[in-house]
Amino acid sequence: MNETGVLHMDFKLTEDQDQYRQLAKDFAANEIAPQAHQYDESAEFPMPLIKQAFEIGLMNTNVPESLGGLALSPWDSCLITEELAAACPAIALSITANNLAIAPIILHGTEEQKTEFVEPIASQLSFASWLVEPALMCDGASKAGFTYKKKGDEFVISGSRKMVANASRAKWFYVLASDEDMRSFVAFVVPADASGIKISDKRSELGLKAQDFRDVNFDRVIVFAKQIIGKENEGLKLTKKAFEYVLPQISTLSVGAARAALEHSVVYGKERTTFGVPIANHQAVSFMLADMAKDIEAARLMIFQAAHLIGHGENAENIASIARVFASDAATRIATDAVQVFGGYGYSREYPVEKLMRDSKVLQVYESTGASAKAAIARQLVSAK
User: Which of 102, 184, 291, 381 is 20 to 30 Å from 350 by CA-CA measure?
Assistant: First the structure.
């Protein structure tokens, strides 16, 4: 904060930030991009690429140094995520999804919980998944997804969550459950091998095909008090704080996808000619490219603002939500316009923009839909004093 109480924002990258971004950019260009189409076609989980990303330090970026991590800031993580997503949003999500499940334990867990659940993820490649009803993060849920019943020192959890990233490979789950009246919320960390957990088969998705989305069902899963994250009745509050911490990184997946769509459109627009000139010289196409560029820059700046505020311990709930909605809506629109630029070729699986259109649409509903997020933004505006 400066003397006027305004948080100064300097977007000039430090030497370390520039090195991490370049590392991610090189890995994305040399390893992810050449294989992105293949993984989309086969819908296989990109484990070899994830192993490489882990080995060079592009996973679990927010883990503190005391637990074996790099302790990168939310903004640092956004720089990395954009480069990965520009090569393939699905593979980028597979690499970065751990950050969401880890965040509540880093922010609110005990030292024992951090040592048991976070430190192993930093030292050896493994996965964790986030089991939270997305609408709860926008205050728009009528059901919690998971409910618990307390029996002495035990908690019995039942419920389900759809579209869970990396679920079939998770070593543990972060779960937010409520009592039957949704008056009390408790956050738990639950080992994936606990009795009563069932993981569905992989389904065929519209986009993000290289991500192994699964449905997770809890049928009377027993956990204990030592598995509670934070205080027993503060699960919703701490989960929202953790979600806010990682939300800029989730939003950046859309920026990466949109950036790729623009880059492909510019290259094609300069190569493809009609009436003796490149189509990028025609006003209809050139204005479309300009609109893509301005929306990408706006989305990126909003995300950076949110990440910067979060990294300095400031409240960024509203701007993080706005950035998330704007970025995902913009990416969907930009990828669709990219298909338009490519014309008939845009619908061919031989060209990259068709994939980006499908991937961007899934990102628009991943971890809360745009409609529920907009409702949350409106409630914040109306309730503000």
Answer: 291
271 is catalytic: no
List all residues 6 or more positions away from 201 whose beta carbon is below 8 Å from its beta carbon.
Answer: 214
7 falls within a domain: no
| 261 in the same domain as 376 | yes
Query: Dihedral, CA atoms, 52, 54, 58, 61, nearest 10 degrees?
Result: 180
Which of 124, 135, 65, 134 minimizes the C-alpha distance to 98? Answer: 124
Integer CA distances (angstroms), 276 to 169, 270, 284, in order:
53, 12, 16
Tell me, yes or no, whether 107 and 35 share the same domain.
yes
112: Cβ–Cβ under 8 A, 6 or more apart, which residues?
Answer: 226
The residue among 233, 248, 274 that closes a domain is: 233
Co-location of 254 and 138 in the same domain: no
- 3-state class (DSSP) for residue 157: strand
Find out whether 209 and 74 touch, Cβ atoms under 8 Å. Answer: no
pTM: 0.95
- Give the angle 177-61-106 at the CA atoms, nearest 5°: 40
User: Rounded CA gap, 376 and 305, in Å?
Assistant: 19
**Structural domain boundaries enclosing 203:** 128-233
Q: Is residue 2 part of a domain?
A: no
The whole-angstrom separation of Cα 304 and Cα 196 is: 41
Per-residue pLDDT of the chain (385 residues; tens, 9 = 90+): 444 445 677 888 999 999 999 999 999 999 999 999 999 999 999 999 999 999 999 999 999 999 999 999 999 999 999 999 999 999 999 999 999 999 999 999 999 999 999 999 999 999 999 999 998 888 777 778 999 999 988 999 999 999 999 999 999 999 999 999 888 999 999 999 999 999 999 988 899 999 999 999 999 999 999 999 999 989 999 999 999 999 999 999 999 999 999 999 999 999 999 999 999 999 999 999 999 999 999 999 999 999 999 999 999 989 999 999 999 999 999 999 999 999 999 999 999 999 999 999 999 999 876 777 888 888 888 877 6
Burial class (CB in 10 A: 0-12, 13-18, 19+), 147: middle
Q: What CATH number is attached to the domain comprising 212?
A: 2.40.110.10
- Among candidate residues 351, 319, 324, 320, the one with its CA nearest the CA of residue 335: 351
Q: Is 336 helix (H, G, I), strand (E, B) or coil?
A: helix
The token duo for 286 is 């050139």
